[in-house]
Amino acid sequence: MSGLNLVGFFLLILTLVLVYFRFADRLGRFGFAAFAAALLGTCLVYGDVWFEAFATPLVAELAPEAIGRFTPSLVLGAVLTFVGFGLGWALFGLSFFLARCAPRPVSALLIAAGLYGWQALTAPKLVPLALAWGTLGVLLWLEDRRGSRAS
């Protein structure tokens, strides 16, 4: 499951960058700030996914008493990571909504996904983001196909 999480979050980062650059001229400064927040939050979650995939098993083997212990810096890091992820995606959805880069329901779903997705490592919490991102991908693909037929 960890490997699938790594691939999924990598693809999320990649598509976030690609979609941002496709609409950068329409998103403006707020859109850039929202993109940067979503990118930072997603990169932080990706780091957590990496740690859980590769380091946690070693820690559990060598120092099992460390599992489940929390230091203030670890709690701060977790809060910044997951609040940053959720807030970043909510702001990115809002920037899409305001710039009318996608149909309103898709942008609203991105906003809701961010607000709901602050618990990003629990699979059910990522379903709204996956639905919004998947719908946006299909819409962009259809738009590109229509454009290529017209030319």
Describe the structure in your own words.
The protein is an all-alpha fold. 86% of the residues lie in helices and 0% in strands. It has helices at 2-62, 72-99, 104-116, 123-150. It is elongated, with a radius of gyration of 17 Å. The chain starts with a helix and ends with a helix. The relative contact order is 0.12.
Short description:
With 151 residues, the protein is an all-alpha fold.
SSE blueprint and pairings:
Blueprint: H1 2-62, H2 72-99, H3 104-116, H4 123-150
Which structural traits does this protein have?
151 residues; mainly alpha; 4 helices; elongated
The dominant shape is: elongated
Nearest-angstrom radius of gyration?
17 Å
Tell how many strands the DSSP assignment holds. 0
Low-confidence parts: none
How large is the count of helical segments?
A: 4
Helical residue percent band: over 70%
Structural class: mainly alpha
Strand content: under 5%
First CA to last CA: what distance?
Answer: 43 Å
Kindly report the oligomeric state of this protein: single chain
Rounded mean pLDDT score = 88
Biggest beta-sheet profile? none
Topology as a string of helices (H) and strands (E): HHHH
